[in-house]
Specification:
Elements: E1 3-10, E2 27-33, H1 38-44, E3 54-57, E4 60-61, E5 77-81
Parallel strand pairs: 1-5
Antiparallel strand pairs: 1-2, 3-4, 3-5
């Protein structure tokens, strides 16, 4: 099967789900089967759904309803942010 290579970036508390060496840059290069969706990446990494609040691909927001159908392409960057509290 064809592979695609994407960059995954996890922010704030989600950084805890990265391997130790990836925590320095908060980025991880993933080799995925072509057709892998955003939702499949979230599930494979064991990220809690409720913490995957803001999901961006190359800076474009991916709404929750689109995550199960949006396939990742080579060269894209998937960034996931948890809900951020502040004020």
């Amino acid at each position: 099967m064809t592979q695609v290579q994407v960059t995954l970036k996890l922010f704030a508390t989600l950084q805890d789900y990265l391997p130790p060496d990836a925590k320095k840059t908060n980025a991880l290069t993933l080799e995925l089967d072509a057709g892998t969706t955003v939702q499949q990446v979230i599930e494979r990494l064991g990220l809690p759904q409720k913490l995957c609040h803001l999901v961006l691909i190359d800076g474009a927001f991916i709404p929750p309803a689109a995550r199960a159908t949006r396939a990742l392409q080579t060269g894209e960057t998937l960034a996931i942010w948890p809900p951020i509290a502040g004020g």
